[in-house]
Design goal:
With about 400 residues, this protein is α/β, with parallel strands linked by helices. The strands form three sheets. Strands 6, 7, 8, 9, 10, 11, 12, 13 and 14 form a nine-stranded mixed beta sheet that branches. Strands 1-4-5 form a three-stranded antiparallel beta sheet. Strands 2-3-15 form a three-stranded antiparallel beta sheet, with no helix packed on it. It is globular, with a radius of gyration of 21 Å. The mean pLDDT is about 95. The longest helix has 21 residues.
Length: about 400
């Protein structure tokens, strides 16, 4: 089997006015999606969605530059493409190529990707069956404005519980300095969410690295008392000592790491017990690196699972990684991405609270037809900064 082509689709869909969302100090008017496709002379095709944070045209440019060295080669060759060094966008482009190769190699062996991962995660039990059903947590709470009825986040949480979600993650709302927001106001809002849905849903808070240590400590103690499940990236990413102190002081887990591309970025946090749980995205760090990070986390006694954002093909890829782990975890799904999220797939799975992993070879899913015609790329960044 030989590689005949490597293509990168750059897709977009404008959000309708009612679907446009905002958080902190940025505003989002469209959804983007890069898709990498590897074609072969055997008729098998590998597909993957790297993280949109790599910028779809940049991903295409980087893979087009690499393509001449890969055409005509055997995609089953484990040394086909070396992991690069460079900036985050380079790692994301490589993740797209590597994930598509995983899909292709699994199809060639008539196995799911999760089945290929299991013996690499637990070599002592190589025949262990991957998990097939995932509880989803609705990732939202981004679109509430401290100047315009911030309790809309409570309404969102109730509506998601009514749709069958059993877990919900919210954020900190619009930029606090715009509205003079203080910690006491945030805690009051967190209490309202707890009162509204706490008996029906697990609750998590994402800090998006926006808090200082004193703010995070005060909010963290409330979350402890209220029974929230985890507190994600409350501090700026370079404050590892602050993370270590916070993680030691609070009972609920401090989590983070979603933007990291390499094991070297994770290990200091593991070594200092700065995270109780590490979060990675295979569309950022690649699946091979995710396996290395998992084993390192285990050595330090840290749990590891995925964050997940953007579209359905990457959701499926992150699910395959979780499926291969011996530990059970909930799977994140952003609830504001719009139709592009799942319309890129021919037969998308049901996603009201749970996701059943397809059992066909590879990722188990196929791309929908005419994607570039239906979702032509809209130039420009996926979000823009705003000021007040």
């Amino acid at each position: 089997m030989k590689i005949t082509d490597i293509r990168t689709l750059c897709l977009s869909r404008p959000h309708e006015p009612e679907r446009q969302w905002f958080s902190a100090s940025f505003y989002v008017e469209k959804a983007d999606c890069p898709i990498v496709i590897i074609d072969t002379d055997a008729g098998l095709q590998g597909i993957a969605e790297p993280s949109t944070y790599g910028d779809p045209p940049v991903i295409r440019q980087r893979l087009d530059a690499l393509k001449p060295s890969l055409i005509g080669r055997d995609p089953l060759d484990p040394n086909l493409a070396s992991r690069p060094t460079g900036d985050r966008s380079m790692y994301i482009a490589y993740a797209g190529l590597e994930l598509a190769l995983w899909d292709l190699r699994a199809k060639a062996q008539n196995k799911t990707v999760a089945e290929l991962i299991v013996p690499l995660i637990t070599p002592d039990t190589p025949e262990r069956k991957p998990r097939t059903l995932f509880r989803l947590y609705a990732s939202g709470g981004v679109q509430y404005d401290w100047d315009d009825r911030p309790t809309s986040v409570v309404d969102e949480a109730r509506a998601l519980a009514d749709r069958g979600f059993t877990a919900y993650k919210m954020r900190l709302g619009t930029e606090w300095s715009w509205s003079g927001v203080v910690v006491a106001q945030m805690i009051d809002l967190l209490q309202k969410v707890t009162d509204a849905v706490g008996e029906r849903m697990e609750l998590m808070l994402e800090g998006n690295c926006r808090l200082d240590e004193a703010q995070a400590r005060e909010i963290g103690h409330f979350l402890d008392e209220a029974g929230w499940t985890w507190f994600e990236e409350p501090l700026p990413k370079d404050q590892i000592d602050g993370y270590t102190r916070l993680n030691a002081e609070l009972h609920l887990p401090i989590t983070g790491g979603e933007s990291n591309s390499t094991l070297a970025e994770f290990e200091p946090f593991f070594a200092q017990k700065a995270y109780a749980k590490g979060q990675l995205d295979v569309g950022v760090c690649s699946l091979g690196e995710a396996i290395r990070i998992y084993h390192c986390a285990k050595e330090y006694g840290v749990e590891l699972f995925t964050q997940n954002w953007h579209n359905g093909l990457l959701t499926i890829a992150n699910a395959h990684f979780l499926a291969a782990l011996p530990e059970e975890h909930v799977l994140e799904m952003f609830i504001g991405q719009g139709p592009l999220q799942w319309d890129i797939l021919k037969d998308p799975p049901a996603t009201e609270g749970y996701l059943a992993l397809p059992d066909a070879p590879g990722w188990g899913v196929e791309l929908a037809d005419d994607l570039e015609t239906r979702f032509p790329y809209i130039p420009g960044p996926w979000g823009r900064a705003v000021e007040r």
